[in-house]
Amino acid sequence: MDEFPPPLPPPPPPPPMTLDGAENDTIFAKMLVLSKREVTARRLRRTRQLRRCYRGHYWALMEEIKSKYKEYYWTYGKSPFKETSGVNHAVVLGDENNNNANGGNERNNNAALGVGGDDVVRCAFGGCKIKAMALTRYCHAHILSDPKQKLYRGCRTVAKNLPTGPSYCNKPVLRSVVPATCTTHYQLGEKCLLRAVKRAGYNVPINRKPNVKLHVVVNEFVSQIKNKRKVALKAAVSKVEAQ
């Protein structure tokens, strides 16, 4: 039998980093007192070297994140490859009809983590055929259906005012986003804020984000609250007169 080849030796460790201007520092190593200019020059030299080191690490990390994101988007995003055969090999978690007698459980365990195999994990929401996100059974549009997820919450913007109460947008939004609004309603809120600021007599360019002072926003909110109270009071008075 053929023997396995010996394992490759580990790569040698990188050479230690040398400080810039170390030759000049050895001259002042035995001195007890240094002038202010010498201390400032040494600190500036080392700060610049540390900045270059951090910058190199940052861009290396960005390149790694870019490659990881490309791999993630290719696997769980919009892949250009489509199934040409009539047999659908997609796996929907919770559907026992797709499980084979021999390897169904193992494939579902791998699909629960979003890894392993050539099967495409589809969203478990009824009627949805979009690929599921990694480490979950649902796509981004139906991620709120997963009771175990902790990263997303629904958009709290009122979409309609129904007789039974307000109906919220409830699109998935990351919990770290403040305010908890989707992209569409966030842009709509910015436009409303621009119109309110213009009504107050301030000209804000449309091509940049509004940067108004707090007292302007407070005055506008107070005026809107007063207008709402006046409308409600007028409606109540007219209702009493009608009775």
State the gist of this model:
The protein is mainly α and about 240 residues long.
Major sheet attributes? 2 strands, parallel
DSSP helical segment count? 5
Cα separation of the termini = 102 Å
By secondary-structure content and strand pairing, the structural class works out as: mainly alpha
- Arithmetic mean of pLDDT: 76
Record field, number of beta strands:
6
List segments where confidence is low: pLDDT < 50 over at least 5 consecutive residues. Answer: 81-104, 109-118
* String of helices and strands: HHEHEEEEEHH
What is the 3D form? flat
Tell me roughly what share of residues is in helical segments.
40-55%
Strand content: 5-15%
The strand order across the widest sheet is 1-2
- Report the C-alpha radius of gyration, rounded: 31 Å
